[in-house]
Fold these 2 entries.
Entry 1:
Amino acid sequence: MGERVTHVHFIAIGGTGMASLAGLLHARGVRVTGSDDVLYPPMSTLLEDWGIPVHTRFRAEHVLSDVPDLVVIGNAVGPDNVEARAAIDEGLTYRSFPDALFELAIGGKHPVVVSGTHGKTTTTCLVSSLLNGLGWDPSLLVGGHSLDFDGSFREGHGDHFVVEGDEYDTAFFDKTPKFLHYGARTLIITSVEFDHADIYYDLDHVKEAFRSCVAQLPSDGMVVAALDRPNVREVVADAPCRVVGYGTTDSATTDWGAGDVRREAGGMSFAVRRDGSAAGRAFVPLFGQINVANALAALATVTELGGSLAEAVEALGRFKGVKRRQEIRGERNSVTVVDDFAHHPTAVRGSLDALRAQFPNGRIVAVFEPRTNTSRRKIFQQDYALAFDAADRVIVSVVPDTPIYSATGEVTETFSSEQLVADLVSRGMDARAWSDIDDIVTDVVRFSEPGDIVLVMSNGSFGGICQRLLDAL
């Protein structure tokens, strides 16, 4: 299909994966168009910078008046979307995003698929950066903005294609997980926890998806798995190929281990153990135990693929990071504003712990927006109450009283920001809940002190709050 495609239209182009594939094809010289109803940075900015025309409303004529060779339908739209319906009913060639990505970009290469509840984006960028440091010229597509490659995609000439593979469903016409569509030969599993409550019933349902991904691997493939995590051990138990374990909590039971973690200027260093023996020290320009684990996963992967560990360690020290993952957005009047994507309680805890390691003496103000279909449910109400321990102040955006999408049935209980604040206050913490972003900005500015670190956590734009905080400060 790839050689015949000269014009591709993306329905719901604003998603991170969709926009990244659109950018990759545009860079090849393919004519790319798209449509969406809501666009926000960074993808809206990138699409504009690339010169890709985007309709800000869905209309049937977008696919019928100028018929593309291929229509890519994102999972953000349903069967009643007028453009998707028109494309399907008129017999146009269409694909889901994962299938289009595989057919147009991944096929013919060695797919390195990075999966897991947490750490996917950072680990994907780490693996790509290390492979590039080894001179292997990898391709990349990730659900974030890699600072090493100044973007969310890269088309290299090497054998490997590194892709972030999530377990969310593919499209309204294909409810299988995305990561089943990438033909993984090397699969990284960073963690397995309950998430995406809008499409998964419980943790066992999530495990089933990961088991399916593992089961698809070829006999000469490889799973690089965080075996110090029980759920991960469980889903790789029947792998049809070699399993390479890594871990930071009990390296004696894994092939790759990290210990003696030390905070240093600009990042963390750790001792690397391979097959039970010391293999030197590594430095990663990131903070927190979670990023030590991500770095170890990347080192293990590229080395087991045949790369030099020494060269990989050297490349690790040059890693630049990922936008919106502990990204320092600026400083005003000695107050630092940090942007982060954390939204699951485990990720919130990990991000705060990482920030505490980076700023051991500063006061941390956590600003949290429960925005995902999972975080807006009551499922993790108590878990969130224990996730903010590393913060000195907590400000929570009030969850709007609007319907929550669910493919698993009607949701009867929603997350309560006010209850979270009450739980935090009962534990002696300073916490507030506000329904308006202006009130949040006013609160932060009013009670800010020199040396404060304001950590903004949301998987959305949060109304551009980071820049608004910097302007107000």
Entry 2:
Amino acid sequence: MSSLDGRWLITGGIGSGKTEVRRLLAVRGIHTVDADAVGHLVLAGEGLAPVAERWPDVVLEGQIDRQALARIVFDDPGELEVLEAITHPMIFGRIEADLKGFSGVAVVEVPLLEGPKGWPMIVVDADDETRLRRAVERGMSEADVHRRMASQPSRAEWLAAADVVVPNHDKIQHLEEASAVLGDYLLGGLRTDLVPGHR
């Protein structure tokens, strides 16, 4: 599958390495967007009022306490769905508006299996044990990581949704090599059968 308008999503579970792949693609000159960073802007802007109305206890000095909000939504899938229903249209609306008129390749990092309709998906893959270890090494507690993983799709669901899979199981050098191949493909310089995990 190819993206006719050059728009791609890059995703994967917590600790999979999707942010590192996005960084490596940016180094190769590909325009990248962090949807989580856009989400922070949304919570400070147009999303503040509806989120504060739904969860008034997460408002601190007129701003959303994102850690307090995370504790609520990652412990309750129903609450997470409500938050996503409020913020996702705003987040993707901002991203699509920012990309309007942009003619190059754009890769948007998202932490979920959702995005603008029709955008093909790059999934960065690692086994659950590796993902847990990486997240703990970044400073998260095992309990927090398990809660995040439980709120996200399973590894099988990530892989089933992928148009391209970037393996990230071991050494950073291997991820750099896979990202270089992916970058060449996205920029139109490589056969699709050489891209790891391409369908």
